[in-house]
């Protein structure tokens, strides 16, 4: 007898048809890979980070492979919120995709501008704030490293929207739990854990950093054990907080691990680069895992890690 | 347009071409078509090392009773290319393609000249075969560091319906000098477009020459790629307006006139 | 013409015959792998961490592989300083190996006991303090997370020995630069960067952490880009400080990358597990790299990264 | 003692044995000897996935004109074992061995009884072959979940010079029941020592039975291993005095009397 697996999950008040989302910056704006992975088949798609106006991004080279991972320094190149609203969102809406818009800015006002523009559109399920951005007002310290900046930012945006606000935390924050607490206290509906790890790869022959900006962000399977650790630590500290787990998910079993560590949903990033159907396959493998293991509702897994 | 797809393929043959280069044939069970200048992303079917697939230009596509055969010419430079060189025949690999925008052969004006440098040969060879088949006359310049790094000279000659000029930096075969210098020397007024692939300095020189002769050049660029399908923005090149576009989608073949001077 | 490569390097006042050491905890006490990798052929061997008395270590399972890495939770099992002095050190001395003794304790006194015992022996080239240990006196906070505890510890040991004191830093410290500064100010001769990263792997079927203690330490190639980043950051902040780089070195080119980032020497850890001759091969590959690239003295590489 | 070495080996043959298991032969260019119960560490020659080699008991060692052939029986459980199952014949692998402390065959008292459970067969089969060759009489009990998970029944029979008892949990072949229960039922007074390999619960039951019958048991344990050579301390097992010893060096074969009750 085959178990019928309930895949739907809940991130705070938002219901997702399954717990697998495509991660920001790895799935374009949601439509680029429809022939491999229709966005409406996923729990959701998180768009490339949007800013008030288009941005050209960083000089090249921007990427380099590292052992079981990669470093990127894209520099948040994007088409800007206006182009997204007019050229992309209508088609996503029509397909019935659950769209989470990733938002960033160099000032609080920039975040606000993006959110305000999107408030005029239907078909946005949630905002995800990328707070790994240098806060120009605070001497370039990242919003996500400083609980008080983050508090201000989230409170301000909270007033602008009733849609769910997810705050995507940087694993480079010296005190992640303090940052998480600040975001939750300021009204965040969920925390996305984690963004990329600050890292360095060197071209030994050229004696130069492998990406043009020097440091970049490490992603991929290499970081999975670090991301899982952080998700579990935040889950233990804030058991009621809805978490979205991310970092190195390649397979359905990886997704299960994040759910067990306390995430209500997971995002798949770098995996899409090696396989454009990765998100879809993670959904299928997650379902197969549940069937094999007799898990009838995927939500049973959430936080189910038996610690010691 | 050719439909891109992701399929397991079999390493059907391998032939050593030079101290650093070899040719491969990949057998695709499913359909696959490609135009010259398009590329594929190739990787192992399992495992996280390498994590990402690697881009390779298609050097040719043939039919066999068991499926489509894709020809690649590969230079061993690192992890995956050295794996490809040692992998037993019959091994499975994973192929995503065809990808990108190739040479604009149909809109090519009267007399193109083709230029290849080093491991830039594959798309140029494919273009040569295609142009010959369509009966469009062209000349071809192909340069390498030295005679034993010149790949498949017989096949290059056979694929060319006009002049096939070989050059080596050290003069050990054909003309001596950089291929772009030789091209400049032997330039024909009739040349109405350049189609080129090779190392970046060579392509800069080609673009320069094209500007001087007031012809358009189509350049096949090589940027590091993670996804090959336009979603990572890792492979961007700069256009003359300063904007960055993914070379895996808008390219890898660009019109020199679109590009920034140092893309 | 083949370049003759000078491989000798200097970590502070200590000269090493080449820049490659075997890392603590991955090469036993120095003699276990003589048939694959004679210790005297290396820049040095760093012993398994020693405590005043033998320790049994943690329950099992203790290890699990992760993408391009592994998590361990050995729990500092060791034979104790006395057994090392009587049963191992004489043979190492006789072979002419450069021996760096890795030392740890749960109190300052335990560190002191180990160092005092070793002061009575010849053939110890340096001490490496593992400060990723819970400080029992300070409520279990690791010595290496707290600049003031570290300051006390290093000052105390500084009075006990004239041998070089290396302090091996934990990458989990929230403020690594502050910790590095404290260690240097207190008299450390060099900093070893880095120890393992706190991490979690989960057995999805059993719904349990993959190692018995829950969290463990991540090592191997996966962490190389993170370790390189930390080495470079510390080198930029303290350009005069001798650094020993460690984290995911598998090949000679990896070693070059750490040297370029500012390390005077590198250690090879997990690589030895997959290949017992790894350290020796790294030396050979390093030499070959220098020959190919025309580097006549390996010290030319140190800190040679051209930043942007 | 056999000298351990690290050498590239060639995957010379593969034979499917059951839905989950297969036999391999590895061709070693260099010398390799091993005694029953010893193991090797096997991994890919390049790449970081898997990062670490995996331990496998030697099931037999033979000579061939091209070198030593090492036989393994492998169960597909994860990353590397599934790679082994798909790898083309002729592929290169990297082998470190022989490692560890095997069965103490020379000091074995009059009449040993051999017990294997599931994929615990390889060292037991090797021991059977060796005992037969030395003319030491023994019986052998071999259990698996069901008939199609019983590996190489003919070879097991042929290698056994006494009784060869097969058991399956579901009774689909031979005796029905756990191999340790069947052994208990058919226990002979003459049995003076047990040599066993199998899943941990089976080995606990064997140790229990040995205590009851007051014979020594030699148990081949399976702990996760990183290095296989005693330097990582990842593979330790607990002795009765509470201390931990590396099973890759002090074992993998231990006397049950040395071990803690729950090692
Ligand atoms: C559109 C496109 C088409 C391509 N077509 C071909 C082709 O037909 N044949 C072919 O052989 N290659 C081709 N390449 C280059 C090929 O993708 C790379 O050589 C390959 O990715 C290297 O992988 P690796 O794992 O062996 O090297 P890695 O281990 O990833 O890199 C090893 C070292 O080589 C350097 N490197 C990377 N690419 C090159 C290069 N092209 N030349 C020299 N050094 C390099 C890296 O920076 C690194 O230092 C193409 C690239 C692109 C973008
Ligand atoms: C001394 C010794 C001798 C061994 N001899 C043999 C042998 O002759 N034949 C053989 O097939 N295996 C043998 N093993 C077990 C073998 O080493 C493992 O099955 C192998 O390491 C699994 O590697 P993998 O990459 O396929 O699995 P991984 O991807 O590393 O692990 C996959 C999953 O399988 C689990 N797992 C690991 N080992 C086993 C196991 N033995 N049974 C069930 N699940 C497991 C892991 O915990 C994990 O959940 C031996 C082990 C030791 C220590
Ligand atoms: C090329 C690239 C671009 C990214 N762009 C963004 C972005 O625009 N906004 C954001 O919040 N995260 C961005 N990320 C981070 C990912 O969403 C994700 O947090 C990270 O890659 C870890 O997940 P993974 O290991 O599954 O890739 C990007 C990651 C990569 C690799
Ligand atoms: C199994 C194991 C045991 C270790 N034991 C110690 C130890 O006793 N003392 C110490 O300072 N570091 C210890 N380490 C950390 C290593 O010395 C090294 O810092 C870390 O593994 C990163 O280097 P690598 O990636 O080359 O392995 C241990 C690491 C491993 C994997
Ligand atoms: S390779 Fe990813 S956008 Fe081009
Ligand atoms: S496997 Fe490393 S000590 Fe046994």
SSE layout and pairing:
The complex is a heterotetramer, with two copies of chain A (308 residues) and two copies of chain B (263 residues).
Chain A: E1 9-11, E2 14-16, E3 20-22, E4 44-46, E5 63-66, E6 69-72, H1 80-95, E7 99-103, H2 108-119, E8 126-130, H3 147-160, E9 165-169, H4 176-185, E10 190-193, E11 197-199, E12 202-203, E13 208-209, E14 216-219, H5 224-237, E15 243-246, H6 252-260, E16 265-268, H7 271-274, H8 278-293
Parallel strand pairs in A: 3-4, 3-16, 4-7, 7-8, 8-9, 9-10, 10-15, 15-16
Antiparallel strand pairs in A: 1-2, 5-6, 6-14, 11-14, 12-13
Helix pairs in contact in A: 2-3, 3-4, 6-8
Chain B: E1 5-16, E2 21-28, E3 39-44, E4 54-57, E5 60-64, E6 67-75, H1 79-86, E7 92-99, E8 112-117, H2 121-133, E9 139-144, H3 153-159, E10 164-168, E11 175-176, H4 179-185, E12 193-197, H5 200-213, E13 216-220, E14 236-238, E15 244-246, E16 253-255
Bound molecules: flavin-adenine dinucleotide (2 copies), flavin mononucleotide (2 copies) and FE2/S2 (inorganic) cluster (FES) (2 copies).
Shape of chain B: globular
Arrangement of strands in the largest sheet of chain A: 3-4-7-8-9-10-15-16
**Fold-level CATH name of the largest domain in chain B:** Rossmann fold
- Class of the largest domain in chain B in CATH? Alpha Beta
């Amino acid at each position: 007898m085959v178990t019928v697996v309930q895949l739907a999950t809940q991130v705070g008040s938002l219901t997702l048809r399954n717990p697998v989302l495509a991660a920001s910056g790895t799935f374009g704006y949601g439509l680029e890979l429809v022939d491999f992975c229709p966005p409406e088949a996923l729990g959701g798609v998180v768009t490339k980070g949007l800013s008030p106006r288009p941005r050209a991004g960083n000089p090249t080279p921007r990427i380099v492979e590292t052992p079981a991972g990669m470093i990127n320094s894209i520099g948040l190149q994007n088409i800007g919120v206006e182009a997204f609203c007019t050229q992309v969102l209508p088609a996503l809406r029509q397909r019935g995709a659950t769209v989470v818009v990733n938002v960033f800015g160099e000032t609080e006002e920039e975040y606000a501008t993006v959110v305000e523009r999107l408030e005029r559109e239907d078909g946005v399920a949630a905002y995800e704030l990328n707070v790994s951005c240098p806060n120009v007002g605070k001497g370039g310290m990242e919003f996500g490293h400083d609980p008080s900046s983050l508090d201000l930012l989230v409170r301000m945006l909270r007033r602008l929207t009733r849609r769910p606000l997810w705050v995507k935390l940087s694993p480079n924050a010296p005190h992640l739990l303090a940052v998480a607490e600040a975001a939750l206290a300021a009204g965040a509906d969920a925390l996305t854990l984690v963004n990329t790890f600050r890292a360095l790869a060197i071209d030994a022959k050229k004696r130069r950093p492998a990406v043009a900006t020097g440091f970049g962000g490490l992603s991929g399977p290499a970081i999975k054990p670090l991301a899982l650790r952080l998700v579990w630590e935040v889950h233990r500290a804030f058991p009621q907080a809805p978490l979205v787990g991310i970092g190195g998910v390649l397979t359905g079993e990886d997704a299960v691990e994040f759910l067990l560590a306390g995430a209500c949903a997971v995002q798949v990033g770098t995996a899409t680069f090696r396989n454009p159907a990765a998100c879809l396959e993670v959904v299928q493998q997650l379902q197969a895992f549940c069937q094999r293991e007799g898990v009838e509702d995927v939500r049973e897994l959430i936080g189910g890690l038996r610690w010691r | 347009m050719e439909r891109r797809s992701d399929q397991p393929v079999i390493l059907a043959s391998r032939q050593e071409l030079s101290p650093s280069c070899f040719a491969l044939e990949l057998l695709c069970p499913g359909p696959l078509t490609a135009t010259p200048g398009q590329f594929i992303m190739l990787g192992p079917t399992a495992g996280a090392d390498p994590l990402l697939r690697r881009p390779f230009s298609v050097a040719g596509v043939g039919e066999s009773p068991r499926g489509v055969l894709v020809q690649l010419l590969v230079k061993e430079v690192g992890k995956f290319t050295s794996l490809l060189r040692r992998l037993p025949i019959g091994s499975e690999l994973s192929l995503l393609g065809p990808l990108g925008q190739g040479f604009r052969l149909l809109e090519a004006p009267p007399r193109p000249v083709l230029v290849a440098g080093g491991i830039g040969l594959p798309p140029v060879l494919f273009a040569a075969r295609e142009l010959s088949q369509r009966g469009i006359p062209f000349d071809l310049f192909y340069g390498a560091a030295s005679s034993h790094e010149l790949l498949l000279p017989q096949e290059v000659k056979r694929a060319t319906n006009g002049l096939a000029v070989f050059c080596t930096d050290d003069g050990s075969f054909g003309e001596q000098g950089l291929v772009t210098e030789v091209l400049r020397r032997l330039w024909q007024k009739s040349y109405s477009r350049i189609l080129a692939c090779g190392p970046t300095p060579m392509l800069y020189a080609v673009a320069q020459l094209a500007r001087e002769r007031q012809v358009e050049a189509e350049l096949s660029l090589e940027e590091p790629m993670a996804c090959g399908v336009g979603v990572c923005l890792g492979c961007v090149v700069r256009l003359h307006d300063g904007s960055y576009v993914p070379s895996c989608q808008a390219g890898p073949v660009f019109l020199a006139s679109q590009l920034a001077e140092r893309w």
